Amino acid sequence: MKSTIIIGLTASAQAHTIFQKLSINGIDQGQLTALRAPSSDYPVYDVTDPHLACGLQPGSHSPTVLPIRAGDTIGAGWGHVLGGAQIPNDPDNPISPSHKGPISTYMARVEDAATADSNDPGLRWFKIAEDGLDTATGTWGVDRMIAQGGWAYARVPECLEAGEYLVRQELLALHSAYDRMGAQFYQSCAQVNVTSSGSYLPSGEETVSIPGAYGQEDPGVLIQIWVNGVPDNGRKTYVVPGPRPISC
Ligand SMILES: *[C@@H]1O[C@H](CO)[C@@H](O)[C@H](O)[C@H]1NC(C)=O
Ligand SMILES: [Cu+2]
């Protein structure tokens, strides 16, 4: 009995996640297709870590660049480990429900999405979607991703200029964020080629570098979300780290 309990605790302490597949307008593009994804489900803790851009290395780097249209809905598919469940009926797939927090989707324009250096400090990342805390219900972006079977969605703005982009989706787990370096950043990147009649490319304050966008003690990173034993930030407004999503 004792050993069972210890195994249980160990499993939940390591109940992390990986963004490992992309969907376009609801169509699953296949495991790791067009992705740069970590092979480990461990998070990045240090906001200055270069792996904050496209995930902890070592990992995989697909040669594929997927064609999409401005206005399409892209989905990021999350799983506990590569392939999804770690064990049959894995309660921590796609992620342990303990991992409350926001999900954000960023893009950066690149010349060649297949080969672009994701740590190029010249990359200007802009946010196209974020799903933080719903103060009416006390639920987080992570809760909605789990309810959607492991998928979190973002719409590619119609105004965006055509060209190749990296798409980065970040899941920020805040269950231990009351300690400095306790927030857990999970992310992968997808390589896409956007066709569009739009001509907008975000610049200036709409964009950030990654790493660089966050500080370790930012109010959305170092935060106690547990209030009276409930991880709902006391239903107070939570501002998702980074810039607001572009609107155009
Ligand atoms: C991106 O799309 C443009 C326009 O359709 C096409 O000319 C180009 O070859 C595509 N690039 C890649 C890498 O697929
Ligand atoms: Cu975890």
UniProtKB/TrEMBL annotation:
- Which of UniProt's keywords are assigned here? Carbohydrate metabolism, Cellulose degradation, Copper, Disulfide bond, Hydrolase, Metal-binding, Monooxygenase, Oxidoreductase, Polysaccharide degradation, Secreted, Signal
Annotated localization: Secreted
Segments forming domain Auxiliary Activity family 9 catalytic:
16-227
| Needed cofactors | Cu(2+)
GO BP, one annotated term: cellulose catabolic process
| Record field: catalytic activity | [(1->4)-beta-D-glucosyl]n+m + reduced acceptor + O2 = 4-dehydro-beta-D-glucosyl-[(1->4)-beta-D-glucosyl]n-1 + [(1->4)-beta-D-glucosyl]m + acceptor + H2O
Cellular component annotations (GO), alphabetically ordered: extracellular region
Supply the enzyme class, top level.
oxidoreductase
Instruction: Output the Gene Ontology terms for molecular function.
Output: hydrolase activity; metal ion binding; monooxygenase activity
Which InterPro entries does UniProt cross-reference here?
A: AA9 (IPR049892), AA9_LPMO (IPR005103)
Quick one: where is this thing mainly located? Answer: secreted
EC number(s) in its UniProt entry? 1.14.99.56
Q: Does the keyword Transmembrane helix apply?
A: no
- Report the Pfam families cross-referenced here: AA9
Database matches in PANTHER family = ENDOGLUCANASE II, PUTATIVE (AFU_ORTHOLOGUE AFUA_1G12560)-RELATED
What is stated as this protein's family in its record? Belongs to the polysaccharide monooxygenase AA9 family.
Q: What is this protein called?
A: lytic cellulose monooxygenase (C4-dehydrogenating)
